[in-house]
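Hi support team,

I submitted a single chain yesterday and got back a structure, but I'm not sure I'm reading the token output correctly. Could someone confirm the output below corresponds to the sequence I sent? I've pasted both exactly as they appear in my results page.

Thanks,
R.
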Amino acid sequence: MPAPANWGEALAQRLLNDTAVGALVGTKVYPSKPTQDTTGAYVVYFRAGGADVTTLGARSALQPHDVRVECYADTQADADALLVAVVTALCGNKATGVAPWRDRANGVQGCFTQGDGDELVTDDAQPRQVSGQTFRLFFKPPT
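Hi R., thanks for writing in. Yes, this is the structure output for that exact sequence:
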């Protein structure tokens, strides 16, 4: 698989290649919103904030991104289970032996949770359950 060109490609690759997330959503991981009406569980991610790191010397190649990941499912329990899988894929889980995500060869220097969450979202005419989390992702494009 080619090296990701940006933080979004890196995040999508990580989630699509994770066994637990893949078992719940298959390939339904989307930037911003699904490309069409989607049934079953899926993941949406988008940049929610972050700032360029600039000093008197120049702009730093290492950039922090606040990334929002939302997990949609038919039930709240399914959305919560999907969010647990996403958090584990991105931040690790010491109790289960999953290491935190750091892939310097592909630009990822680290990924950490920020404190927040969502409850119910109405998606068009169909009520969907959503659980979400914001992450601070440090990305430096590979050279």
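A quick pointer for reading it: The CA atoms of residues 14 and 89 lie 7 Å apart. Let us know if anything else looks off.

Best,
Support desk
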